Amino acid sequence: MTDLPLVSIVTPSYNQAAFLEETIRSVLEQDYPRVEYIIIDGGSTDGSAEIIQRYADRLAYWVSERDRGQTDAINKGFARATGSILAWLNSDDTYQPGALREAVDYLLAHPDVGMVYGDGNFIDEHGKVIGRFPSAQTDLQKLRRGYVHVCQQSSFFRTDLWRKVGPLDPSFYFAMDYDLWVRLAQHAPLVYLPRTWANFRLHSDAKTISADDRCWPEMLRVHYRDGGSWFSQIVLKNYIRKLAAPLVNWRRRRMFSR
Question: For position 243, which CATH number holds?
Answer without folding.
Answer: 3.90.550.10
